[in-house]
Amino acid sequence: MARTIPSNAITSANNFETNYQTSLIALRAAEVAPYFTVGSKAYFGDQIFGKNRNGQTYGFVVRDRAEVENSIAASAGAKKDVVERVVNLSIEPWHTFEKTNAVEGQTDAIFDKNIAEPNGQALIQGALQKSIKSDVAKCSTCFIGNAGELEPLAMASAHLSSLTSEPLYGFCDPMIEAIVTTKGADRVPVDAPPMYKQGLIGHFHGADYRSQRFIPRVTISAALATAMTGAKFASFNDSTNVLTVTLGASPASATVIKAGTPLFISDVVATDLVGDITTEPYAFIVTEDKNIATTDSTVAVKVDEVPVSVLGTRVAALSDGSIIEWTGAGANVTSANDVTIPAAGIYFGAIVRANGAYEFETLDTIDVQGSEYKKGQVDRITIHQNRRLDMDAFVNDTRFDLFTLSGTVEKRAQALVLVKAK
To answer: Where are the domains of the chain?
Structure first.
């Protein structure tokens, strides 16, 4: 079959090999990628078939379940169709490009220092930053503490442990690590491979913690905190995921609700992994910064999807177990419901999740493989290298590619922690 090759593609014959130098890049990437590789699962490996499907979407199915009745006879209302929910993730491409001239031949040792380390780290950090920014809002609960308090970490792991027997993993701002250390908390080092020792905090109250500097900090201004005092629920659009709040008062000065800020609606609680209620408030976590002017009496913020209509797949419910109705004659979240946020201050963040709440894998094979194609694989991270020689300029063009499929697939098994800085 004829194939059209882009003008900038590598057109020479394939010569597949695994290469030590490229493996170094994968190793350097894996060293800074425990957030991806620890406590995650590769759910879609058998679907990808080693093909480069840039933008291909894969669906993780969240299971529904039936009503539970305390009777011998089944009531008509308890017989319901199974309505599963799908969380979609797409393959995303990342690459770096290096140029070296004919007299810059490098040994493996220099390659490791000058090429593998910066390129491996840059590739994975690009993917990390985008994923973490999205994952913060994909937490169904948020535990908040004052300056120096460790209780939020313990409460997050205690909550998740009550939902699942899966191992727990935490990823936190390095400043939380500093708080844990200076407080002299009892923490047992994790028996991890040497490549994961850097940034390792240890085992604390049921979860293995590692540093992750890309967890964003959340700032809540005094003007925002004051304006939110006495705030009430106005509406929630479940098509656009926009939550509108009636402020308690217009802010004294222009302010902003930052992405990552949790909002809590009175009487709305998080659910467990089969849709039953928990005692923890559901966290509506803002996904985009939203400016508030001094003349505003309401604010509309975008939050992550909040499925509530199907019993087994819902992430939130009323505290009595009722299905939430946002609109219509049966609306049961109204202007009588309070909306609150954390107190004013700067907060260090952490994400705690159960094993399997997160999906991560990389493509092992791509379709663009030139004569100088190599790849390296370390701990589910595959880096692809292609090199093209420009004979006129006498320059080597070397490209490193990483294709990731990553993201939170079960937000009910993931919690956000905020610890106040001061």
So the answer is: 20-66+83-136+357-405, 151-216+349-354, 222-343
